Protein 1
Amino acid sequence: MGLSIVGVTSEGESQTEPWVESKGARYAYAYDRGGKLQKALGVSGIPNAVLVDPSGTILWQGHPSSLTNALVEEAIKGSITTPVYEWGGSAKGIKKAFLKGNFAKALKEADKLAEDEELGTEIGVMLRKMVADRVASYEADLERGDVLKAYDGAKALASGIKGLPEEERISALLKAISKDKAHKAALKAQTKLIEISALELRRKKDCDESIKQLEKLMKGFEGTRTGDLIGEVLKSVQVKKGKMAR
Amino acid sequence: MIRNLLLASAMTLGLCAPVLADNVGKPLPAVELEGLTQSPASSFDELAGRALLIEFFAYW
């Protein structure tokens, strides 16, 4: 019906697997190691659910009991009728190229399939929208100052869209980052910020060291998007340190 | 790898910053989820192009 439901847990397999078995739960589930997705979505309590439309945009988030049929119907609009995992037979090659991130090849094959089968047309529409959405989102990232996000995304997409109309836009975006002094500095700082954020904070001393590094990194970025990102991490480290101080 | 769904990649900055604002209208963060089980799809990439409901749960 166009909707996939997946349970996601940040708990370990050793405790989750027996639980799933004992409950006889049949639904699909997956592991969110370290609770990364939960953190990124600001999930502080369970249960919590997120409804995503076919283009990957969040439509709704909240307690599962407050999810309405109308919202689900809205989300399903535009879903492909044949899911990727059912692309067999003549669509097998498209699936293979798509899963490798080779949109150009997948599209070429989809257009060929479209001559004989409706599925080819449907896949073509889906892939073109995915590429267009993705390019637009990286351009928006750069516009906002999320240079690392834009750069990582564009780099990963670039090789898979050779010959497509969006190729030029992605090249232009990567070029803009590599030519612009401010973008380059932001890219470097945001990469460093990821490194600092990944450090384990076990003791107060670790927090102090992290705060020192973040304050150093902040220099020159005050009032910019990079500065805001550093500020957010700094704040969370300070909160963590405060909890340790007791 | 397909990048619009839940994708594996270098961590993006969204991950280290707690999200306090409303997430509606934003793309689902690119985070790799592992061990997809009991699904007809063998990876999250294969769920692309359809609506997705993620429900956070815990065994306790």
Protein 2
Amino acid sequence: MSSAPAAVPVASSGRAQGRQGSLEQQSIRWLVSRLEGVALFVQSAWIIITISTDNLETGGKVFLSIVAASHLAAALLAATRRDGGPSARGGPWLVAWIGAALLTPLVMATLIPYGQYGATTACTQLCGYPVPVIVMLAFYPWIQAGSPLLGRWVTGFILAGIVFIPLGVIVITHEQMAATNWWSWFNTILSYAGAFGLGIAIAIICRRAVQQVGASYQRAFSNYADVIHSDVGSALSALYLQGGNWSIESVRETLHDLDYNVRSKQRRFERSLNESVYLADLVQQVYLSHSRWIKGLALPQVGDWSVPGHIALDIELTLASFLKNVLKHASGSKARITCAFNEGELRIGVEDQGAGFDPAVFDVPDNDLHKRRQAARELGGDVEVGFTDGRTHIELVLPLQQDANGEEKRS
Amino acid sequence: MTSVLLVEDQALAGFSARALLEGHGMSVDYTEDPSSAVDMLRDGAYDVVVVDIHLRTPAQTYEPVKPLGTMQRIRHNFQVSGLKVLAESERLRKRPGRVVWSSGEADRKLQLAFAYQDLRVRCYCDKHPRQHHVSRPSQWELVHAIENAEQGAPFQSELASLFLPPMNERSYFSRLFEKPAWPEIWEALALGYRKKTEIAAVLGYAPRSIRNEIDEMLDTVQEINPGFHAATSARSNESGRRNQARFGPVAEYAAKNQAYFLDETVQILARERFNR
């Protein structure tokens, strides 16, 4: 047994398993928290610009530093929480955040005299505070997340109020409304409308993405249910074909077939979701498919061993191909499935006491073994054949890891 | 007449197995509860005990709180399984023959390995009837497993051998619980704790020591199950954080084998190794 250093791009998608019902809601919360994180970070950056460029007194700088720090903390919280940001479920936090952000321009206009703004003009700087909130105000109702407080009517009411914020800022800082001030007010409202449109656009994109993910899982589960239903239908048909002459034995056989078919489909479906697959389950499937024809097939003890999900199907198909080969070339002889992990490689194969076969079959393009060897080589492995003491050993060798570019480590 | 104690939670399976064994001239007592089974073994002299590993009855209070992250370490009880009967029967003066009757489901493989490697049970019978697909009927397997167990001879049904650990492997149990802190760390991971700081806080260790233990535990997982390690470490590596790359596969191994790491018998014997 050997170690298997990690490194591979493995097909993985099992995280959503078993939680399809709440997948959409979880994804929305995740999106909300990330967007809130960005919005809060933008706001904190805006405040830090004010601190560093405006001509503020010490008290004002301390106050704004606390505000910026609280925004940064909230941004971190939003970005790291799995189940939604601070306001994903509404509550007083949301109201406090929106209220504070909307009132900030008016408070700042009162506190900082005209002519002491560093970075931009007074209105541009002060009226920038509500922009992230406006984006979120558009985003929440459209994505149907967050507090019921932010229904569309309430949002509209708040937006109507927002229209007067730049007006208030201009009146406080300029103490009059000249023609240029009206033009400045109009531009600010246009930018608010743009921010609102941006929020809606983000929400629509997010919602569609989430719905598509949910729909793809739904389709996968529906397909699985259809397949299972088809198996049940086949079992019933098999019974009806007997024209009512049912015996306990025939019903039992049919139910066993149904049990086997459903289990094998279930496992194939699980393999498509899982990162790792138990070797015992995989070998069992192949064994059950062939045990009618190959008597006395000995199985290995593999216990807890697993293989990466992305090579499971190849292993199953190759092992099945080996057993067909045993049936063809070594009919009646004893055979056993072998399995081992060696130096980062999985070796799984079949050993029999048959007459052996011509290795040239590997070079016949239509031959199943040729196809399986090609598939193994594409995964960085190979199919090896050995003849010792009257026994033939055919073995699939697969590396357990690939390098970061997906290139195989085995040459 | 061979006297058999059957420990099985599925009424239909228990009923049919009892009928089958009585049809073969055996006397059968049947219970669903492993604790009762232990008392019955002490009171009565049975030749053979047939045990299912996963028993629904004692797990009923456990299952509703089982989903990861919903259990608190201080409030949960360990899960009682058929391993309790196997372990207790080993301590009896007149030790009965032991047969494990299991379907080898995914989350039971480490428990089967424990029975095989540490409790030295040598008779295994596949529970699922697959007589349509295999050369011998499963009833034959159960009867012969009991006969072999009574005579002290090994028996493995055709499919049961698949679920047993490879021959000559060092005990998984001794490797997975190699150091004194590991039983508790595996327990916390199986309960759903997913941060080193949380585990450190709940167990009373320093976070750095948890990190070192996790590093060694990962090496063990890699030795025991290189394929699982290759599959899970790939995704953990994608996160780009070394800590996650080491922690992720160990946490997933604990989650995948939750029934084993929260098994009462396994945890008690693991702690007994270090007298804790």
